[in-house]
Amino acid sequence: MEKRPECFQTGVQEVATVFLVCAAQFLCQGGITMCMSTMKVLIDSFAEQSGNIEESEKVWFMGSFALTVGTFILISGRLGDLFGLKKIFLIGWAWITVWSIVIGLSYYSKSIIFFIICRAFQGIGFALLLPCGLGILGSVYANGQRKNIAFSCLGAAGPSGAAVGAIMAAVFAQFVWWPWQFWVQGIATFVFGVASYYAIPPDPQKSFRSFSSSHWVKRLDVLGSGLGIASLILFNFVWNHGPVAGWISPYVLVLLILSVLGAFAFFYVELKVAEYPLLPRSLFNRKIGLVLLCVSLGWGSFGIWQYYYWNTVLILRGYSPIEAGLTYIPFLVLGVIASLSISVIITRVRPSIIIAFSMIAFMCGSIMLSIMPVKQSYFQIAMGQMFILTWGMDWSFPASSLILSDFLPVYHQGMAGSLVNTVVNYSVSLFLGIATTIETQVKSQGSTVLQSYRAALHFAIGTAGLGVVFALVFVIIQHLDNDKSGTFASASDTPTIESKRSL
């Protein structure tokens, strides 16, 4: 193994840095499952205070959080590249601390809408953390075994956080009081923020403090960023809220049209107007495009699986929050094994093959949930799908992160983190909105709850299946290019002078 990077004065500092970056991913995934294992408690709590709560509003418990994480990541990577990855990383911890406290206090508002809005604002903090954390690891580690191990630990943090978050939230909701799950989260993020200030080494890239404010505006691509974020939020909102309000509602149609127009305007600005485009054109090629497309389809199907899994065990099977949370333990154990194994496998196997196996795992997980009987022991299909899905999550995320990090230069490491996390989190929210639309339509035709769930899961199967197809195309391309490494850098793929100018 290569020597420790010079920016780390001691081995303890290196371990602490990797741990703190992993903690961001751990808490982000835990932030999603916290509201999944306790969604019945949350609905009952607000319904008791303010009257009936629309059952369909629970999709926003996960959707609002994933939406802001996925959209604001689009610009947070650029902020990190411009102003310093460590600085934005610290701001992210502070932001989450504040909004975690506010979410707990939302109980007194007696409004589930306010709770959902607070969850969305909390997601912005994780949008600041995740790409900058990936950027920190990508900038301090050269390509090699140490970098592979660091990114594998990052991959293990996701499923581990999902399991611990679900169980921890269930314990507080069932035995204490549900706001405490968010207050404890706020305390943890405050501690991690202080630790990050002392442990993480200074930013290695050049400071841009000498630039004027107008130059910062250009480099941030404010117009393109605004159009991109607005169109993504509106499009996602329409797909998640359409089943609730009805697709013939005038404002739903107007927002859908505005989101599409905003997307066209975004691409026009990026291609024709922006001096420093948010997503530099020269950084994209067919391989990067295939990786991101596969990640989108795979994680989109997983978002659907996750939502309907919790609905199945809590509503159809009648599990308590703690019982439901405990069913996620296989993710905690197997996630570590799968993620650590990828650091060795990725040096011997083409990344395209790893991505392909991940897509197959995502598809199999959705198939198993779609055929799982309501009255069946957990230790049969329910537990079996955990063993398979673990490999999908823990191989796809670190593999795709390593692929982009190896390809992009140091000054674009924040962007590498942005691309992967944007695709993962936005896809989770977007595809879930489409799935709930299918569920609503099937249920409106007189089908049972179970039948409507399975219809949504059939969409998840198709989504993951399409990911398998594109992954196989990726395998063929890498085979034809004789590319066996974890990086795609080649004569045609190497970032050009123009790409360096883009930042």
From TrEMBL:
InterPro entries: MFS, MFS_dom, MFS_trans_sf
GO cellular-component term (any): membrane
CDD domains in alphabetical order: MFS_Amf1_MDR_like
Pfam families reported in the protein's UniProt record: MFS_1 (PF07690)
Keyword Membrane attached: yes
Protein's UniProt keywords contain Transmembrane helix: yes
Name under which the protein is recorded: Piso0_003826 protein
Organism: Pichia sorbitophila (strain ATCC MYA-4447 / BCRC 22081 / CBS 7064 / NBRC 10061 / NRRL Y-12695)
